[in-house]
Design goal:
246 residues, alpha+beta, Jelly Rolls, 5-stranded antiparallel sheet, 4-stranded antiparallel sheet, IPNS-like_sf, metal-binding, Plant_2OG-oxidoreductases, oxidoreductase activity, metal ion binding
Length: 246
């Protein structure tokens, strides 16, 4: 959980207001847009709905700040691996890195034990920055048990994603997580996934691989090819990551 970050409380609150407004557009306003989730690519090219008014501007500010936070965290991860602070940024071409904005809308469910907001999965990319509207729902697998993430207000929950596991040759593990629904309140989550550029060939860092004592644990693959691999299958744990595991 990251606090004292670069996204002001006022901007976080405004982003939730805009997301709530999006999911409450009239049928005529929303037309063919999805009503229970929104997924848009926001970098290297920025895309956004034009409605409700103000959504596009708020989303652009929010994602730009989230991108900065992710890059600062990746510098610290690089250092923790014994690499130069800029290693991940340069090796994975983050100037053209793919950033995706995902908003999920979970209305109250009368039988929450019989429903699931999102099945267990790990994320593609490097780091996913998640914020919630105060309604508990995010769960992570910890020591074989699913536990609720009781997030500090206004914090960003940071999930390590598959390509950090690959680059670190398994020193970092991508986080298995899922979303539960509530019987009493509407839950809104906002996730900003930050990844390499689409054409980047992601392999374990050469500096972390030793032929005998620590061989490469993953085969290399272009990031956009990995995306295609994951999107072509239903979310199911680390099924995509298992495809590149040696």
């Amino acid at each position: 959980m990251v606090v004292n970050h670069d996204i002001p409380k006022t901007l976080m609150e405004k982003m939730f207001v805009e997301v709530f407004g999006f999911f409450n557009l009239t049928e005529e306003e929303s037309k063919s847009m999805q009503r229970d989730f929104l997924k848009i690519f926001v970098h290297p090219e920025f895309h956004s709905p034009d409605k409700p008014a103000g959504f596009r501007e708020t989303c652009e500010q929010y994602c730009r700040r989230a991108r900065h936070i992710a890059r600062e965290l990746l510098k610290r991860i690089s250092e923790s691996l014994g690499l130069e602070p800029s290693y991940i940024e340069q090796a994975l071409n983050l100037d053209s890195g793919l950033q995706v904005f995902i908003a999920n809308f979970y209305p109250p469910c009368p039988q929450p034990d019989m429903a699931m907001g999102m099945p267990p999965h790990s994320d593609h990319g490097l780091l996913t920055l998640l914020s919630q509207n105060g309604v508990i729902g995010l769960q992570i697998l910890h020591k074989g048990k699913w536990v609720n993430v009781n997030a500090i207000p206004n914090c960003l929950v940071v999930n390590v994603s598959d390509h950090i596991e690959i680059l670190s040759n398994g020193k970092y593990k991508s986080v298995l997580h899922k979303a539960a629904v509530s019987s009493k309140a509407t839950r809104i989550s906002i996730a900003v996934a930050n990844g390499p550029s689409g054409d980047t060939f992601v392999v374990p860092a050469a500096e972390l691989v030793k032929k005998e004592s620590n061989p490469a644990a993953y085969v290399g693959m272009k990031y956009k090819e990995y995306l295609g691999l994951q999107q072509s299958n239903q979310l199911d744990g680390k099924s995509a990551l298992d495809r590149v595991r040696i």
